[in-house]
Amino acid sequence: MRKLPNLNALRAFDAAARQGSFARAADELGVSHAAVSRHVRNLETELGVALFERHARHVVLTGEGSLFARTVADSLSALEIDTGRLRRGVGRRTVVLDVESDLATRWLMPLLTDAALDDLDVHLDIRVRPDPPRAVLGDADLALTWGAAQCTGFRTEPFLDFEGFPVAAPALIERGSPPEDPAFFLAHRLIHERGIYWWRRCFDALGLSLDDAAGHLYFNRSHLCIDAAMRGAGLAIGDNVICDEALRAGALVRLPGPALTSRERYFMLVPDTRQVSRPVRRVRDWLVAQAKRHHHD
After folding, report:
1. Which residues of the chain form CATH 1.10.10.10?
2. How many other C-beta atoms can be found within 10 angstroms of the C-beta atom of residue 293?
3. Could you tell me which residue ranges the HTH lysR-type domain spans (predicted)?
4. pLDDT value at position 285?
5. What is the pLDDT of residue 5?
6. Which of 75, 115, 136, 197 has the fewest CB atoms within 10 Å, i.e. is most exposed?
7. Which CATH number fits domain 89-161+265-296: 3.30.360.10, 3.40.190.10, 3.40.50.360, 3.30.70.420?
8. Cα–Cα distance between 65 and 191 in angstroms, integer?
9. What pLDDT, on a 0 to 100 scale, did the predictor assign at position 137?
10. At CA 151, angle to CA 150 and CA 153, rounded to 5?
């Protein structure tokens, strides 16, 4: 007979470890602060060690608590993943795809044509998240992430490389200085995410100062920056992945300027198991084929 701690106590401990607070853990689990505190206290008594250092408004894991937190997080993640797969059934046709939002909006959506979906012959359940998963994918079968993510139950495979460059709407280019003139970049508003890293690299390569830019428009997602550029709101830093459709359609034009490379790329997370269903393999192979086609175009 397995002698394991109470599951509710482990869930309370896991939430408190991730949140750094009994109160926030209680909000996540939908229980009272007292319930979380009681579960953790009982768990500490059962294990015979202190798992947290208590402070007025937060808690901090002890050394033993940190080690145990990793074990519990990995175990709960594996249980969550397998539970989701069993609920759907190995032979069922639904495939859950977890996708980073910029890639989903600007790259994946144009590929989901009637013909492609008919050929796949699966029920796609696409979950979009603003940031890469770092620990838990829930019941996802596959994931596409920006940057490598280490998630229990999955292996990480390189998926798409990208090259960044400045872009603008054709109508905006027709006004004022030609884009070959560095003054063109100073005459228009710069669109970017909260970090200004890419524009700084671009301006440095062009011999310009960001202090002389006409203005700035900030968004918290790259696909919103691209949408704003397509509407003529200013210049954006795009790339050959999320701007592919807009460039082909003529909604955006690549401007003269440096090619901006990065050590990061898009990755695919694939179940680290031999029992991958046929529908999941079909979607995975289709996604890999689309990525290869993109690189060859």
Report:
1. 7-85
2. 10
3. 5-62
4. 94
5. 87
6. 115
7. 3.40.190.10
8. 44
9. 67
10. 125
Residue 289 has a pLDDT of 94
Tokens representing 223?
A: 């696909």
Residue 228: the pLDDT is 96
Residues of the chain falling short of pLDDT 50: 91
Q: Under CATH, what is the fold of the domain 164-254? A: D-Maltodextrin-Binding Protein; domain 2 (3.40.190)
**What's the CATH code, domain 7-85?**
1.10.10.10
Kind of pairing between the strands at 253-254 and 164-168: antiparallel
In angstroms, the Cα distances linking 166 to 28, 86, 91 are: 41, 46, 46
How far apart are the C-alpha atoms of 49 and 45, rounded to whole Å?
Answer: 7
C-alpha distance from residue 118 to each of 112, 113, 140, 283 (Å): 10, 9, 21, 12
> Which two structure tokens, joined as six digits, stand for 125?
């359940």
Ranges for all domains in the chain classified under CATH 3.40.190.10: 89-161+265-296, 164-254
